[in-house]
């Protein structure tokens, strides 16, 4: 009987060496920018206690948590009534105490509360790790994926929002991705619901508004009407949904609409202050006020940030915002924070579509030495060692195989340079360097070779 072909769980992926080199380029670029702004790395375990995770993401999030079975004879402690009644929730509580993390934010909140005596506030941290969700796999949605989070907690200052937008501007500039930053504020949204007399329907209004780009204004109005929002309130909302023009034109209009809402006006002032700083800094990335932006409604309390690629049709590639009580669920109240998360998988897809990965990140080695036999290897090994010490990735083909096989192997790995040293080169104390892309080759001394490859 033939052995069954191995496979991996749906919604997970293997990454080839060339894919990993490209992914590491993204992670390294993001990490370098985080460090440049003084953020420090932390890591949290892949698994957390279920009591830490449940109830933090709503019913849908709880359903998508991967649970881990307790060790040993976990069924022995389950009471018969739970099994007879097929009580799924009750059974889960008795056989599973841990789960895989759903995001990096709740573990971060737990970390801050648990280590609060060792942390200097404001605490600036970054975290790049995988998360797991028991979602239905589809294009662009996986059960295991990486998040690249950066947060500052323990400060109310709007300069933190400004700094995070500088960070994302630096990241996308370095990656060569033309992006647009959409900004809004939870307080502005609350103010809008208040002035149209529908504060009690705040959630329904913002969920509908958030779909404006996808479905158009008529469908948004239909959805709000179906959710019980009055025709009068929807009519009052139209000037806001259709508001266009530059920031200096939008803000006076918006502040006039929200003049009877102190909460809404505060949101306007906060957003205006952030945008004034960004204008003074002259960042590369374009930014705009988007009054329909309403991501993470139950989570954010102030600024809301979302980034989209300009040249590729893709969902948001970065997003985040201000939260005033992230740690309150763990007993440490009144600690405000703000953060953003980069979607590494979507950024990868954008760079692939733009052909935006630098050539240096197409291969792990820059040069391969051809193996002609023992004497030639003895001649090449000291030079390979010097190249590596000069931070030039170099390798030697391990076997004295046919030239065609060695060059084919280098070509498959995407190695851009080949070095050959046969009897003639050894006699003249030279090396033959071949550019695999251009087909050109030249004889060089050891010093010239190192200088050329640098």
In short:
This protein has 454 residues and is an alpha+beta fold.
Write the layout of secondary structure elements.
Elements: H1 17-36, E1 40-41, E2 47-49, H2 50-53, H3 58-63, E3 67-68, H4 80-84, H5 88-95, E4 98-100, H6 105-114, E5 123-132, E6 144-153, H7 159-175, E7 179-185, H8 186-195, H9 202-209, H10 212-215, H11 217-226, H12 231-241, H13 247-257, H14 262-281, E8 286-289, E9 303-309, E10 318-323, E11 337-342, H15 344-354, E12 367-369, H16 374-389, E13 394-396, H17 403-413, E14 417-420, H18 423-427, E15 431-435, E16 441-444, H19 446-453
Parallel strand pairs: 1-5, 7-8, 12-13, 12-14
Antiparallel strand pairs: 2-4, 3-4, 5-6, 6-11, 7-9, 9-10, 10-11, 14-15, 15-16
Helix pairs in contact: 1-7, 1-15, 7-14, 8-14, 9-11
Descriptors:
5-stranded mixed β-sheet, 454 residues, Rossmann fold, alpha+beta
């Amino acid at each position: 009987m033939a052995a069954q072909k191995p496979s991996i769980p749906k919604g997970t992926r293997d990454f080839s060496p060339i894919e990993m080199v490209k992914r590491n380029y993204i992670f390294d670029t993001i990490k370098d920018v985080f460090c440049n702004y003084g953020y420090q790395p932390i890591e949290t375990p892949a698994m957390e206690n279920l009591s830490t995770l449940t109830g933090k993401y709503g019913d849908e999030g709880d359903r998508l948590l991967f649970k881990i079975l307790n060790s040993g004879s976990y069924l022995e402690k389950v009471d018969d009534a739970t099994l007879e009644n097929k009580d799924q929730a009750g059974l889960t509580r008795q056989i599973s105490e841990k789960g895989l993390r759903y995001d990096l934010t709740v573990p971060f909140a737990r970390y801050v509360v648990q280590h609060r005596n060792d942390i200097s506030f404001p605490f600036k941290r970054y975290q790049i790790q995988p998360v797991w969700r028991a979602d239905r796999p589809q294009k662009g949605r996986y059960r295991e994926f990486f998040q690249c989070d950066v947060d500052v907690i323990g400060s109310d200052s709007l300069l933190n929002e400004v700094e995070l937008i500088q960070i994302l501007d630096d990241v996308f500039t370095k990656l060569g991705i033309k992006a647009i930053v959409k900004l809004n504020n939870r307080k502005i949204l609350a103010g809008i619901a208040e002035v149209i007399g529908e504060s009690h329907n705040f959630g329904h209004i913002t969920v509908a508004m958030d779909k404006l780009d996808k479905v158009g204004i008529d469908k948004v109005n239909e959805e709000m009407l179906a959710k019980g929002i009055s025709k009068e309130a929807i009519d009052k909302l139209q000037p806001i949904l259709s508001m266009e023009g530059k920031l200096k034109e939008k803000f006076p209009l918006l502040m006039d609409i929200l003049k009877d809402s102190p909460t809404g006006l505060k949101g306007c002032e906060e957003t205006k202050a952030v945008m004034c700083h960004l204008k003074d800094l002259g960042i590369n990335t374009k930014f705009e006020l988007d009054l329909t932006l309403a991501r993470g409604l139950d989570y954010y309390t102030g600024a809301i940030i979302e980034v989209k690629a300009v040249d590729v049709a893709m969902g948001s590639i970065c997003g985040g915002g201000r939260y005033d009580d992230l740690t309150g669920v763990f007993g440490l109240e009144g600690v405000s924070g703000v953060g953003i998360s980069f979607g590494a998988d979507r950024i990868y897809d954008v760079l692939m579509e733009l052909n935006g990965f630098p050539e240096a990140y197409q291969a792990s080695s820059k040069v391969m030495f051809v193996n002609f036999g023992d004497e030639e290897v003895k001649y090449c090994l000291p030079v390979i060692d010097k190249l590596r010490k000069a931070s030039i990735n170099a390798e030697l083909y391990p076997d004295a195989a046919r030239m065609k096989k060695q060059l084919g192997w280098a070509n498959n790995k995407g190695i851009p340079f080949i070095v050959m040293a046969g009897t003639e080169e050894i006699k003249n104390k030279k090396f033959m360097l071949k550019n695999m892309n251009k087909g050109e080759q030249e004889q060089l001394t050891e010093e010239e070779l190192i200088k050329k490859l640098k």
